[in-house]
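S.,

Sequence below, as promised.
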Amino acid sequence: MLKISSDYAIESELFDVARLFFDIEATDIDIECAFLSEMPYISIDGEFFYLRPIENGDKFSRLCKAELYRALSGYTGKTFAWGALTGVRPTKLGYEIAAGNENIVSGLSRYGVSQSKAEIIERIIENQKGYSRSLNKVNFYVHIPFCTSRCNYCSFVSLPVNHNEKLMERYVELLIEEIKCGADTLRNNGFEVDSVYVGGGTPTALDERSLDAILNVIPYKNVEFTVEAGRPDTISDEKLDIMQKNGVTRISINPQTFSDKTLIKIGRSHTAEDIKKVFQKAKGRFDINMDLIAGLEDETPNDFRYSVGEVLSLRPENITVHTLARKNGSKIKNEQREFSSSVDEMVEYAYKTLCGAGYEPYYLYRQKNMVGNLENIGYSLPKKFCANNITTMEEFYSVFACGAGAISKRLFGGGRIERLANVRDVKLYIEQFDSRLDKKSKFFAAE
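The prediction came back faster than expected:
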């Protein structure tokens, strides 16, 4: 087993960097890090790498990780596009660098970030101009933890609708109460709701009556209003009418792939043709986002290029390209499946092709256990950015979150952010509803 010792107590963060290079459990290597000595060094199984002196301060641990990355890269000969960045959002770091009047690309290079990835961050920050931190603005999030079936890459807490009718009925009743109380809390404490986002699970897995009841009680009808309608087999003509009637402005219809063979493998019960039919019904009524995943099981670069071509032929307002993540709790993680080694090629192809077709990258985030240690990027046609994606991902606004597993965030002065999570288990959400609702009301009370 790999061992790391350090004279600065950040071993867990250093292990995050080491995991890029090694299987921690199967590797027998000793790493010694002396960041605070007069001549700082890193020793990897007796091979010494001498470091540049690091100035102690707020970014000290981040710079230590960068130095370990450089040493491990020299030791193994491996490099990664995002360098030593394992936890911090790349855009957040880009904003910090820009605030110091430093060039973003050269600033990110200190952390081993490749020039091509740094230039993407620079472009995204440019596209986010006009959005900034506000203490009185809030995004309103509603969580629906139900779905028709579970995809093999999914780790979200979501229950099948067909076997949980009574539980779902009670959940909807309490969720409506939480939405009403939340709206009162925000109004009484002077918050301005900037956008609404209803996610899941799959919100459109609910029956028409339940979906209508939830959307109808949300009082914010003149803001950006998004509903994840990701699976085409859950979208009916009546549900499209319900969403439009209730002020929804943006929906997702997520193919993930246009390969029928892959759709079966990942646990979907629809075809690529079903996606196209539903898209045509929704087109013109809503702005539409479509998701693709790079790196799905057994897909080749040609398969992925085909999916990119298909989604471009539909020309939705937004396209999000995800890199497959082997999330804890997902079927693909539990079964230790192998995946394409060409994911970086797929992600690079998507970037060049979508930008060449008139789409702009406007937000980016990364997750742990992503294949190839890559990223997720949201692309948009001009003037069609999803404000919620920017202001939530960049933590520009607070988030009032309703439903089981939903996490509220509140921004305070000085850059402080506090979080309050609802319990993930639906039964516990129901049992503990009153006490947790009271806690959230206090969380958003005026200081």
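The chain has three domains: 1-71, 80-127, 137-402.

Coffee later?
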